[in-house]
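Q: Here's a chain of 97 amino acids. Please give me its 3D structure as tokens.
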Amino acid sequence: MKKKHSGSSVRGRRVIGNAKPIPDAQIDFSDIPESTPEELRRARRVGRRSSGMAKQLIAIRLSPRLLSQLRKMAAKRGKPYQTLIHELLEKAAAHAA
């Protein structure tokens, strides 16, 4: 069985990057029914709302031991570990200023 690669992995991005784009004119949409006016009225936007205060995505290297500690701390507090790291950095920055 062939292993499926995630688009977020290096190898997955390479595999996806090798895919050739297809022009819209060559895509067969004939098996997709048109949306009715009722369906369009009920449609809801998905994804995150634009607040104007979007956080910036960065990459940071942490030791496995530290990351494990942070994940455990976050789990005890019932929040995602990225949120905990953000809060800790915010507090440290405010204290240093």
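Q: Can you summarize the key feature?
A: The first helix runs from residue 10 to 17.
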